[in-house]
Amino acid sequence: MAGAAAALLPALPVLARSRPMLTIKEPSGTVRELTTEDIEALPWQRIDTHTRWTEGVQSFRGPYLTDVLTSGGMSRADFAGHNLLMRALNDFGMVMPADDAWNFQPILACEMNGKRMRVRDKGPIWLVFPRDQRIELQNSSMDARWIWQLFEIDVV
Fold this sequence. Notes:
Layout: H1 2-8, H2 11-17, E1 20-25, E2 31-35, H3 36-40, E3 44-49, E4 58-63, H4 65-70, H5 76-79, E5 83-88, E6 93-97, H6 99-104, E7 107-109, E8 111-112, E9 115-116, E10 126-128, H7 140-143, E11 150-155
Parallel strand pairs: 1-11
Antiparallel strand pairs: 1-2, 3-4, 4-8, 5-6, 5-11, 7-10, 8-9
């Protein structure tokens, strides 16, 4: 009996990975639930930057927010005039114009300094902007958009 239970253990990480990691609610009413695999299948980018919450330059990796938003078939034009209401696991929420996803090219960071981000480390997803590369991102108003523990995006 113990052998049969042990044989099931290797399948557990796969089951855990297939749970939704990020939910996107589109204006049409379509709700997309992206798994870790869905996010890993997108091209990943790297941003090396300072943040208000860490010491020194940090290296972040993940897909562009734009790639995640358009992965369901919507185009940039479909987002024109819309806002993105983003919600975190800790009940924090913020709104930003959808155009800012294209204007500033933030990523949905899933890794920091080569390690997967966990909930206690601002993960599993942290919206990260190329702060050091763009002077207009270096202010408290833009810092307020760095939502971590992101789990839901509602396009409104």
